[in-house]
Amino acid sequence: MARMTLDELRAFRDAKRQDLARRDVEGKDIQIVVGMGTCGIAAGAKLTFDALVESIQKRGLENKVLVRQTGCMGLCYVEPTVEVIAPGMPTVIYGKMTKDAADELVQKHLVEGKLLDNHIFDRPAADIVKK
């Protein structure tokens, strides 16, 4: 392994600090949970996870949104699955979430406060969803 210069070490340290800050839960009231069991990973959950993180950063929401992973959510037939927990909105599990749909999820659900009806596979009963 080649030796790193001091500037390279500083850049590496700063990149790792940013990675750690993304994992910090303090002050983040919105959670996105990506199902990363073997079925989810095989269906492209890692690509979806990365696309969600990128979309959140693009919109400057990284200080408000925590993106994390979990094991299988039990909805293997619609993997990749993504659960969104946001104040003022029902908790929803979206299925068949591709990396292309990740940007739509961030824009519509998190920014505009609207559900993505074409990807919902689990949500609360209609009587508790505010219109």
Automatic annotation (TrEMBL):
It is an enzyme of class 1 (oxidoreductase). The keyword Hydrolase does not apply. Its EC number is 1.12.1.3. The keyword Hydrolase does not apply. GO terms for molecular function: hydrogen dehydrogenase (NADP+) activity. Keywords: Oxidoreductase. This is NADP-reducing hydrogenase subunit HndB.
